[in-house]
Amino acid sequence: MSIDRVEEITGDSEGEPTATATAATAATVTAAVRYYPVAPGVRLNVRSGPSTSYSIVRVLSEGAKVPIFCQTPGQTISGPYGTTNIWDNIGDGDYISDAYVYTGADGYVAGRCG
Known about the structure:
Helix content is 12%, strand content 34%.
């Protein structure tokens, strides 16, 4: 991602960011999130934590693409893209094993959770 211009973020008289500053910050954060494809032909369980011992909160359909907000170590899983203990946080309390997500890397592609 490149930055074409830098914009100063100002606050109101009480030090709080203005609505324009908040919107600019939100747009910057949104632009930084990438979406990655889940392995072809896989319906993937989304869990409430980084292990198969956590409950299933939903199931991703075949062909899904997911954002990775952060990653954390957890249970080691083998899948189409290797064996790993990395789990991807794809939403508030939603985790999937990185072994089922094509990130193009053998390691972390996002910051650590927590």
